[in-house]
């Protein structure tokens, strides 16, 4: 479980997060939703120590952020940032191999190669392993990035808007893959999503944020309601129940 | 890729042999010791500048900037001018080469480290801001230099002029030994950082995600850069665009992101440029132009091309 207590964060004069306390359940997909500027990406960055914590505490399992070593945390938690830098001259295999860095520190062994092959296979990238990343489509590139995060073999995976720039087929396929990772590999996945219908369809748990605060948390069935759309997203749209899941009709 | 490195290595050997043997007259022992000292200096400076440029470009996450472009050469001339200004030309020239070398190397290591680690890290994600910072610092150093040069005697100004350009023709053997020991140590540390540098190339967020202590790694790389640039500049003088030229060529000849390859490839190209260039200038063009001027001309043109193309990565 990721346990966050009294977390506040500000950049200059602007308050990004205000006294956030929340538990993220283990072995599930948790979707972070909310309007632009709600503080979702900042929350993810703080959990993954990409930005220094100012107040409050974050525990990832038995590790406390700020007290454990970077290397120990890298074996427990991985993050896919919103727009990671991509090196055009890296092959897919080389990119995914970087996921093993916390374990081999630059000198990979046979076990690391196995992990990389497995990650390429899980994400359907085996055929593309020797291709350069700049030759890939947006969807393939995104999969390669997530495969690197997967090769890191951590219990917790944080993904910041992984569906950006993906078409509907690539988005669905990626979300189905993440669902499978949570179910078969027991991964705890926290994912920032803009499309609330994806959150409703694929997430077990939903946390809605606005103005740097947690507004609503619970299962999609309990949380995706007209009041959520009105209070958090400041919009009116109808919600229909399809196959037992709430779907926002845009 | 290894085949390309082997080819580059062969070119380096050819350049060495040509430099040592072309037009050699007199006793062999004299030729070996005379040209050997210059060859060692060329090699030391070449490898130090190529390695420091690779380190600096990785840390600053761009492929245009080098320590020299960021005002380092101007700082070197400023330190020398200040020494002549405060000590006087006579006192300055009466100082031993070792003293001048040690003082300038220490002053530059400290200044470079302070400069790189504070000002530059704050502007890290903004290429234009970094270049502007470099230009402004360079202008500041040059203005201070020019101010002091106007105040001093014209004879003393000649002393400064003499040491303001890279020179490979008058290297003291004992200075070379000190420089080689210090640079050798820095190069070992740089080589040991190669895997960390590979990770840093992926971007700061990914590097932190992969468990790298980014601040520590950056600090280490900046210290190594400062030592390498300071010592090589104090040894032979400033070479503004050599780093940019050889590292850009290395990225074309060996287009991979691995620092183990880029370090070696850039060092080989640097050795070929300096040793091959010096052989041509000494033996073919009879010292008509200093090597540093030719390198700065070609490297400066390359800098402008890269800047215009917006070649950041």
Automatic annotation (TrEMBL), chain A:
Molecular function per GO: ATP binding; ATP hydrolysis activity
InterPro entries documented for this protein: AAA+_ATPase, ABC_transporter-like_ATP-bd, ABC_transporter-like_CS, P-loop_NTPase, Siderophore_ABC-ATPase
Primary location group: membrane
Keyword hit for Chloroplast: no
Keyword Transport included in the entry's annotation: yes
Protein's cellular compartments: Cell membrane
GO CC, one annotated term: plasma membrane
GO biological processes: iron ion transport
UniProt membrane topology term: Peripheral membrane protein
Keywords: ATP-binding, Cell membrane, Ion transport, Iron, Iron transport, Membrane, Nucleotide-binding, Transport
CDD domains recorded: ABC_Iron-Siderophores_B12_Hemin (cd03214)
Domain of life: Bacteria
UniProt xrefs under SUPFAM superfamilies: P-loop containing nucleoside triphosphate hydrolases
Residue stretches making up the ABC transporter domain: 2-236
Family: Belongs to the ABC transporter superfamily.
Protein name: ATP-binding cassette domain-containing protein
Species whose genome carries this gene: Halocynthiibacter styelae
TrEMBL record, chain B:
Subcellular location field: Cell membrane
GO molecular function terms listed in the Swiss-Prot or TrEMBL record: transmembrane transporter activity
CC annotations in GO: plasma membrane
Main location: membrane
Source species, domain of life: Bacteria
CDD domains: TM_ABC_iron-siderophores_like
Family: Belongs to the binding-protein-dependent transport system permease family. FecCD subfamily.
The protein's name: Iron chelate uptake ABC transporter family permease subunit
Organism: Halocynthiibacter styelae
């Amino acid at each position: 479980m990721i346990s966050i207590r009294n977390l506040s964060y500000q950049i200059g004069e602007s308050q990004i997060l205000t006294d956030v306390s929340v538990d993220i359940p283990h072995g599930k997909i948790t979707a972070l939703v909310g309007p632009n500027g709600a503080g979702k990406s900042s929350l993810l960055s703080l959990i993954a120590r990409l930005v220094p914590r100012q107040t409050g505490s974050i525990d990832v399992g038995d590790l406390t952020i700020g007290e454990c070593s970077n290397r120990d945390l890298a074996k427990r938690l991985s993050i896919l940032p919103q727009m990671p830098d991509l090196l055009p001259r890296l092959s897919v295999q080389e990119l995914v191999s970087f996921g093993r860095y916390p374990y081999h520190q630059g000198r990979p062994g046979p076990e690391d190669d196995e992990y990389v092959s497995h990650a390429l296979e899980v994400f359907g990238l085996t055929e593309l392993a020797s291709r350069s990343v700049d030759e890939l489509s947006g969807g393939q590139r995104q999969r390669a990035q997530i495969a690197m995060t997967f090769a890191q073999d951590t219990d917790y995976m944080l993904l910041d808007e992984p569906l950006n720039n993906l078409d509907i087929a690539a988005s669905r396929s990626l979300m189905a893959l993440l669902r499978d990772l949570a179910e078969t590999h027991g991964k705890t996945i926290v994912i920032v999503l803009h499309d609330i219908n994806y959150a409703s369809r694929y997430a077990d748990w939903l946390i809605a944020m606005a103005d740097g605060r947690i507004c609503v948390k619970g299962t999609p069935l309990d949380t995706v309601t007209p009041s959520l759309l009105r209070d958090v997203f400041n919009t009116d749209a109808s919600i229909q129940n399809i196959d037992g899941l709430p779907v926002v009709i845009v | 890729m290894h085949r390309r490195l082997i080819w580059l290595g062969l070119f380096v050997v050819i350049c060495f042999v040509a430099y040592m043997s072309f037009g050699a007259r007199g006793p062999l022992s004299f030729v070996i010791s005379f040209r050997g000292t210059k060859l060692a200096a060329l090699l030391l400076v070449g490898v130090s500048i190529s390695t420091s440029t690779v380190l600096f470009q990785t840390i600053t996450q761009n492929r245009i900037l080098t320590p020299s472009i960021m005002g380092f050469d101007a700082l070197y001339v400023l330190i020398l001018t200040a020494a002549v200004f405060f000590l006087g030309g006579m006192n300055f020239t009466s100082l031993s080469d070792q003293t001048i070398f040690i003082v300038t190397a220490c002053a530059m290591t400290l200044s470079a480290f302070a400069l790189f680690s504070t000002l530059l890290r704050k502007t890290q994600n903004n290429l234009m801001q970094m270049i502007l910072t470099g230009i402004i610092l360079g202008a500041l150093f040059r203005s201070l230099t020019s101010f002091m040069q106007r105040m001093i005697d014209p004879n003393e100004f000649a002393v400064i002029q003499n040491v303001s350009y890279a020179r490979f023709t008058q290297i003291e053997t004992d200075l070379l030994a000190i420089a080689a020991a210090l640079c050798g140590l820095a190069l070992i540390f740089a080589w040991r950082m190669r895997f960390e540098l590979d990770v840093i190339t992926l971007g700061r967020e990914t590097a932190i995600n992969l468990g790298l202590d980014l601040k520590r790694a950056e600090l280490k790389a900046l210290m190594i850069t400062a030592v390498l640039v300071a010592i090589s500049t104090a040894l032979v003088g400033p070479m503004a665009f050599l780093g940019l030229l050889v590292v850009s060529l290395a990225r074309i000849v060996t287009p991979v992101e691995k620092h183990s390859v880029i370090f070696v490839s850039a060092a080989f190209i640097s050795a070929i440029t300096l040793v091959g260039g010096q052989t041509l200038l000494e033996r073919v063009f009879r010292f008509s132009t200093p090597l540093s001027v030719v390198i700065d001309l070609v490297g400066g043109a390359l800098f402008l091309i890269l800047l215009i193309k917006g070649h950041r990565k």
